[in-house]
Structures are given as structure tokens and as C-alpha cells.
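Write out the 3D structure for:
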Amino acid sequence: MKYISAVFVYIAGIFVHWLWSRHFPIFGLAPNVLLALTVAAAARSGPVAGQCFGFAWGLSLDLLGAHVFGANALAFTFIGYGIGSMRRQMDVESAPSQAVIILVLTPAVFIFYAVIGFIFERHFLWIGWVPFLLIPLYTAAASPFGFAFAKRFIKL
């Protein structure tokens, strides 16, 4: 039963990310739902579940993207492992601490993706200042819903 819930969480995460980014963006910006869910899964279930969900969701984002294949999967896997390993040393239960974690990790993912693009595609894949500054705020505002979803449905 726990594997069925994991598949449900994976598919629901992709669907919500697609739905929000495609139909409900605010000023053309959408939160990185899959990043918030990766952090929530790692905080809830540990580094192995965080890596698995992070790799799967990152690979799904890479399949939908047009640039460096595997960069999101690598970044989300690192995040899943890091948050899952440090979940005992930091507070991941309260909404303010969840928001701070997301506020720090979202720009880090953007910079990581841009550097990987510079290494492999020979140009810096910069998203621009407005998305770089506003998407972390938007993702942090949406992250309590992702954490509540993970708390309810992830049984690993």
C-alpha cells in the first residue's frame, strides 16, 4: 500500500505542477511545486525517499524542458539527500522554517541549473532577475500546502 501511495504522490505532484504552471501563473510566474514537494518528502521520510522523489520529479521536469537534460534530476536528488539527512538537526515541521528552507533552495537550484548549462551548453542559462527574485517567494508561500500533502499521503 505504501508504494501505491508513493506513485500517487508522484503523479499528483506532476499534475499539480503542470496545472499551476500552465493554468494559474501570476504575472507569468509559477511556483516550483516539485521542489517544495521534494523538500517535503525528504523532511517527512528521510534521505532515501527524498532522493527517489527528487530524482523522479527532476527527471520529469527535464523531460518537459528544452535545455540540459538531467540537471533538475541531479539538483533535486542532491536536495532530497541533503534535507533528508539534516531533518533531525533542523526544524522542518513549522511553516516559517519550511518557507526559509524553500527561500534558500529555490535560488540555489536556479544557479545550479545555470552553471550546469554553462558547463555543458557553453552559455549561462539565466532565467532573469524577476523570476529569480519572485519565484522563491511564490514557492515559499505555496510550500505549506506541499508539506501538508506530503504529511497526509507519504507513508514510506
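Residues 95-121 form the longest helix (27 residues).
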